Amino acid sequence: MVIKKNPLGPSGDTVRANVLRYRNRMNLGYADLARRLEALGRPIPVLGLSRIERGERRVDIDDLMALAVALGVSPTSLLLPDSAGADEIVTATCIEGTAADLLGWLRLHTPSAHIGKPAGERNVRDAIRFIADARPRWDIESLTLDKLPGVGHQEYAEEIAERARLANPDAGRRG
After folding, report:
1. How many domains does the chain have?
2. Record's superkingdom (predicted)?
3. pLDDT of residue 6
């Protein structure tokens, strides 16, 4: 028996399972999916797709993006474990917590340090820093309190606005 140096982890296994699930949901055969990937310029042959679904082949980030496009889903959909509910405990590589927290992290709302911690142990200021720092500069300016899940403090919204000004000092200037 050959032991792999770096076996497929929980996130790789989730991607594997989700590729299979979405491919079956769409009633796509391996050949159909391989043709879609070829047309996108990121070919994965039939054997490669079969090996992905059996957990024998890793999906790199470029494959992940191409598979998401070919399957008509978000890359997040391939990374998020299929769960029965928001409070179900799920595991991703290096993280274990609720499905809702993992989705929040993938959507840039929840810092990874908060995943698996009860609400009373979560630092709101850390969440604000994460929200502001994880997003592209052009998106920070559009953030308002109503778009920040679980945040209801005006001073934090002001901190995000200040971070947006620092990140993009030319915003709002007329030429």
Report:
1. 2
2. Bacteria
3. 81
